[in-house]
Queue: 2 jobs
Job 1
Amino acid sequence: MTKMIFINLPVADLAASERFYRSLGFEKNEQFSNDSAISMVWSEAITFMLLKHAYFSTFAKKPLANAREAVGALFAISLDSRDAVDAITEMAGKSGGKADVQDKQDLDFMYSRAFEDPDGHVFESVYMDMSALPEG
């Protein structure tokens, strides 16, 4: 079996979150979606589970953090080009999130920009050109 990762995110509005993630290229998996959770597939190995706050709380004993006020995790997603990094970041800003919530990084071999989803979860979109990686 292929190793997979499922990222569970608490969201306030399932419909708004679904629209946001669809606009970024995620695909909804109806088989694992219902009125409390939506499964959004990024790749064969990575799935984001968007969970209503009340449902998310059934999986955790700690209080739910407000991602707009505190950072508990940063999610980095790899893309195929600098243009793809720019495109997904700009689409995030047009689709209910916020673009460029951190300074853009351009290290020649690595290029990244950051955006937030509608609930304030931070994503770094990253392109790496391993052939341009400095030696040593």
Job 2
Amino acid sequence: MAGSEGEDRRKDGADSGADVERPARDRRLPAPPADLRDALLAHYDRHARPLPWRADTDPYRVWVSEVMLQQTRVETVVPYYQAWMRRFPTLETLADAPEEAVLKAWEGLGYYRRARNLARGARVVRERFGGRLPADVGDLRSIPGVGEYTAGAVASIAFGRPEPAVDGNVRRVLARLCDRPEPTAGWLRDTASTLVCPERPGDFNQALMELGATLCTPRRPACGDCPWSGWCRARAAGTQEARPLPGRRAPVPLRRIDCVVVVRGANHRSAPRLLVRRRSTEGLLGGLWEFPERVALPGIARGVPLDPVRHTFTHFRAEYRPALVRVEPGAEVAVDAAAGPTRWVTPAAAARLALPVTQRRILQAALAVLTEG
């Protein structure tokens, strides 16, 4: 299964034994598809990792695991997947769940749009497909958050459809197998379609992804243990670590973000209350709670700086610069209404909210200061 985010990564699956992109000889597969399939599946049968989602090919479970595995390492996903299935064991329970509960269950896994799309997708499946995920790739792609890769993975693993599933691992494996420095999306899709096993498409796609995750890794691939090593053109040419060529990365900007932990009522008689606000459901970290960035405070309020919190998002690096401010119980505190709804909560209640990793670290730093007095 996929271990790497995004729905920007992924048709007929019957093998004709035909060459891929016939006009160019160097684009032909280095061995008959049947030989490549047999070798890979034999290796997979011996060495497949015992992952929890492989114990059950229920379409809902396959779908959840594939979404979780986008741009996330397998070892990180396992406990989240197990907890998720305890909390939302069926598509129906997910469709009925409030968004905040879904985001809380996803907390720490990142890319929260995936969680919102899962919940939205569950409702779409209930309304449009009678509560059952469809087997057809076109129907699967009509579900929120399901792109070409996830549709192919679910169709092949859950329904036995001979559909390709091309994630970052598969891209790397196929580029090395055929010694392609810059494989195009079309070439990858055609090559994966030619290779996918009609009899065991789900196992084949998982085997191909697992090969990239465990042996054909970006650095220092374990070529001696690879079932395709004898056919691999990149290994023969000594270019395996240079395939595929890395893409050009744009500079990642740094954003400095000031935020305020406003505390009121902190004394020996009552628990303190912290001011939090909920982000818009759209956009980055949508629907999660955070400490506000802009607050109108009484003139006498003074802030205590907390340690900066740094985090790297997909397109930028963030440095949060929090400050803790104590105010009297009756003090007027105003937050821009357009910034989202606000709430005064106890520290225990704050811990139960769906908070991004950065905000949880800020909360812990603030509580440490409050505990010290």
